[in-house]
Amino acid sequence: MITMNVIPTNVWIGPNSSILVEPNSIFFGSVQVDKLNGSESGLQLFGFYTSPRVNVVNWSESRLVSLSPRSSKGWPYYLNERASLNISYNVKPEGCSVRLAVDEGWLILCLCYCLSFSYVNKNSFTGSGMIQVNISNSGSYHLAVTNPNLKDVEVELDIDVTAVVYDTKKAFYKCNFSNSECTFNTIPFVLTSPAPRQVRILYELH
């Protein structure tokens, strides 16, 4: 039960990402983080005396997407500032276009670098090629592919991620959500997850 002196915030994290949260100890006395995805494992929380440094890591994934007419599919990502996505695509059958976008909330990021592709209109692609998206603000993003055609299309995606993650080696507190929650005094903390997860952060006011 959430009382009047508790402020809840829901956060998506992952895949292969980390998020830094720095509660203000002037306003908040303690913090509780609840795992909202049932028994799924991999989510971890690390507490620090001061904000940790960051590292750059690279990882990749491939997706084969089948889209019926006028349909779309998408996937969530949490990305920190200075991260980037290199997305190679191949659209079949020949001559069909798809719309490909990375959204932050309602903001569609500029697909700022394109190679070897023909386009129908902004953010619409046919054939094969690559786009690069540079992240200037830390936050939750959504990669979406939309089929505007009147027939089925298939899209192959190879996604190379240059991620900015927080170094957890010097953490003095660690919680693996064995009881589905972590509770602690107000300190900077980092959440990490290998897969998309949702958590609820409860800030208790003084």
From TrEMBL:
GO terms for molecular function: zinc ion binding. InterPro entries: APD1-4_M, APD1-4_N. It comes from the Eukaryota. Residues 42-105 form the E3 ubiquitin-protein ligase APD1-4 N-terminal domain. Coiled coil: none annotated. It holds the Pfam family APD1-4_N. Residues 130-189 form the E3 ubiquitin-protein ligase APD1-4 middle domain. Keywords: Metal-binding, Zinc, Zinc-finger. PANTHER family: E3 UBIQUITIN-PROTEIN LIGASE APD1-RELATED, OS05G0521000 PROTEIN. This is Uncharacterized protein. It comes from Eruca vesicaria subsp. sativa (Garden rocket). The lineage of its organism: Eukaryota, Viridiplantae, Streptophyta, Embryophyta, Tracheophyta.
